[in-house]
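Render ABC transporter permease in 3D.
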Amino acid sequence: MWSILKGEWRKLRRCQILLVGIVALALCPVVQYGTQLIVNPEIRDPNYNFVSLFANVIWGNTQIFLPISLVMIGGWLIDRENTNDTMKNLLAVPVSYPKLLGGKLIVTIFLSLLFGLYSVAVTVLTGTLAGLDGLSAAVLLRQGVQVVVAAFNTCLVCMPMILIFGQMRGAYLGGSLLTFFLGYCILFFKSGFLLSSYPFSAALILAGFDMQAYNGATQAPNVLLALAGIAAALVLTMVILLLSHPSSKAGNRKKKAKKGRGQRRRA
């Protein structure tokens, strides 16, 4: 497994698709602060500070920017093996296909943690350049941990979509757009069972985010239901992993390659 992780990380470091996440997460605090500048003065927050900016960034990351980035990058890690015709080589290695996919998911999880740290740094930079008040060591530690935990939880929620659309050739772009829509649906669940158990809402709740302040929830969320929502996403991920198998095209190419080598040897 360690060899798989090192190989996947080396591939990812050389690829320009990382720019999707880097640019998206850099835009998030800029967009959130810019929104405060263009809204009508009567609904503008007169006490907007670093705490407010961090909260807006967590909301924006979980709802829009992280789902798009993680599904696109994670799906690409899987899709590239078929697109670049390297799956037939991987099938010759004594590693199960689910284990190979699991390695790609672990790399994506690690990337989500790095994205969380990167988002904290960009938020601090944006708030500093904007001249916001309220930054202290305690605020940075508390809000920074919340950003990273929310990024980690969001990645767990996105894993089924990464597996599904990553194994459909060229579909990871569509998968990232669908996941964006699913993240945006947080706005529609303001009470009842789905407020807490909907996986994207659960990702925020378990990070300690105040749902009542940002999506207009009419009741306090239930942490146990939030845990159940994340658990459901993990169970679905495991089921998809166990049921995953390489495409028939890759298998056929592998057989043809073996047959070709045999014919050359006889010749």
